[in-house]
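Data availability (excerpt). The following record was deposited with the supplementary files.
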Amino acid sequence: MPVADDLVALMALADAARLPMDEVTPESMRAGYSALAAKGGADMAEVVDRVIPGPDGGDLPIRSYRPHGAGERPPVVVYLHGGGWTIGDLETHDEPCRALAAGTGAVVVSVDYRLAPEHRFPAALNDAYAAVCFVADNADDLDVDVNRLVVAGDSAGGNLAAAVSLLARDRSGPAIALQVLIYPAVDFDYDSGRWPSLEENATGYFLLLETMRWFADCYGDTDLLVGDPSAAPIRATDHAGLPPAHVSVAGFDPLRDEGLGYAEVLAGAGVPVTLCRHDSQVHGYWHFAPSVASSGTAREADIAAIAVAMADLAS
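Predicted structure:
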């Protein structure tokens, strides 16, 4: 199956606007990512910005979205944005978080975790875990159901959601009911050939393999990251007892095969897994959904599947 027709022109524009990697800086990448972000989105009953205590004594900004009709004690999704641990913030993921809240009826709490290279691994993971603990400990004040606590994220955020699920299990932390992993990064092995999609989709489909390497170098020492399951969740020695998972992958994504691989590893450990595979889509289709019809259809399918998975959670 080829890439979706309505993505071809967008991919060409992205390639034309791309800076050579030797000219890329965190600042230029952040500006470009912010320019990509869709404005507007689903209307919410309430959107609240808060600052909560961070794990290292600093402030950790979060933003909560309560959809219309949520009622009392809806499920809650702690959302961890993508962007290679280096770019992205509450604004770049405002529209997707609104779509997720509207489509599931859950309160979504978006986390503005610290970014690399200013704050390298495990700063983002520590912030993500602190936010999950805060939501679990303050469910009454947030008016959410702690028994339906979900962690979710796209790309690097999917990495963080998977890693937080491992930490919560291993630390006897908050009981996470579901992990939602949208085209997640779960490994840092770029050279062994374990994941063929890294080379198959290395160029031409929005996320480049050379950009992934750049992000990884910003995040930490790749030789150390690849061996640490807190950074590379697929490297954990035991995946049993993790929360049920929903995994979504795109066919023309360098991360496709490791996402599929993680779904297989989880299922092999007895973890219930649902999978959405969008063979004609590219990495980042959740962002393209407002303006690209095929990406919108793919995201709607993801959110519908997430809503079904959440409906099965105990209330």
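Summary of structural features: Residues 229 and 235 are 5 Å apart (CA to CA).
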